[in-house]
């Protein structure tokens, strides 16, 4: 028996547009091409940003970035800088930017429902003046990503309201999945006590700085 495909049908841009309709004038008007005083304030209080990039073939990647509030620096009204803190060294974002310099950022502030979206072009730098502005615990990052801003705007809080992201009761969801140690042991066939691996990873997190 031939198995039929279960892949959902693809909609054309015209079909999508017909279903969604036109955005309101105020929605279109809120998109700016610079970082104004309110965007600066939001970035100065944000400890977390999701960073989306894609390679030349369009294969996309979204990377979480976080540090103390204000870790992303506003260099001027059209330029941001994101420090590259120690991580897994896979460097997907850097490889993507070498092929396709488009970038999308989503800033969050804990407890706030609205988010800040920034889109533009980006490239890596080791400029010592830029890195010095990102010094944390007496350490400069080795690299930073410079973002040339094309679009910036606040996004309404519907998604965070629906997800109940900041609701303390939602944290109970974390207890319903295996620990990172148990997952790593199962995925990679590691001959190690899952609890010991979890503790080792947690200790590593505590030594970030």
UniProtKB/TrEMBL annotation:
Cleaved signal peptide residues: none
InterPro entries for the chain: Pyridox_Oxase_FMN-dep, Pyridox_Oxase_N, Split_barrel_FMN-bd
Domain Pyridoxamine 5'-phosphate oxidase N-terminal: 36-156
Domain of life according to the entry: Bacteria
A family per Pfam: PNPOx_N
NCBIfam families: PPOX_FMN_DR2398 (TIGR04025)
Protein name: Pyridoxamine 5'-phosphate oxidase family protein
